[in-house]
Amino acid sequence: MSPHSTDVSFRIAEKTVSKLGFGCIGLSSHNNSVSDEAGIAIIKHAFERGITYFDPTDMYGPKTNKILVGKICTRGGFF
């Protein structure tokens, strides 16, 4: 891997993810949220531009963003 690579490798999972991540707080924060379809479009837009690390922590809402990312995966959006 080049020292200037945009990806990071994890030996345990043998996977790579982008160094730049996407925090999902803006999709379903307590003060502001977007529809599922808008959230899916935003996440897909980031993925298409090379982002492969998404942070859907429950702090942003109880499993809300994890469910949203899961919807994309089950629709074949990432794989």
Q: Which key terms come to mind for this protein?
A:
79 residues, alpha+beta, two-stranded antiparallel sheet, two-stranded parallel ribbon, 3 helices, 4 strands, 18% strand, globular, oxidoreductase
Question: How would you portray this structure in words?
Answer:
One of its GO terms (cellular component) is cytoplasm. This is Putative aldo-keto reductase 1. Residues 19-74 form the NADP-dependent oxidoreductase domain. The chain is α+β, with helices and mostly antiparallel strands and 79 residues long. It has a domain at 21-74. The chain has helices at residues 25-28, 36-48, 64-74; strands spanning 7-10, 15-18, 21-23, 53-55.
- CA-atom Rg in angstroms: 13 Å
How are strands sequenced across the largest beta sheet? 1-2
- Quaternary structure: single chain
Could you say which overall geometry the principal axes of the C-alpha atoms support?
A: globular
- The computed structural class is alpha+beta
- Strand residue percentage: 15-25%
Approximately how much helix is present in the residues? 25-40%
| Overall pLDDT | 79
Low-pLDDT parts are none
Main pleated sheet:
2 strands, antiparallel
Give a count of the beta strands, DSSP E runs of length 2 or more.
4
Number of helices: 3
Note the run of SSEs as H and E: EEEHHEH
The CA-CA distance between the termini, in Å, is 22 Å
GO molecular function, one term: oxidoreductase activity
Pfam families: Aldo_ket_red (PF00248)
Keywords: NADP, Oxidoreductase
Domain NADP-dependent oxidoreductase: 19-74
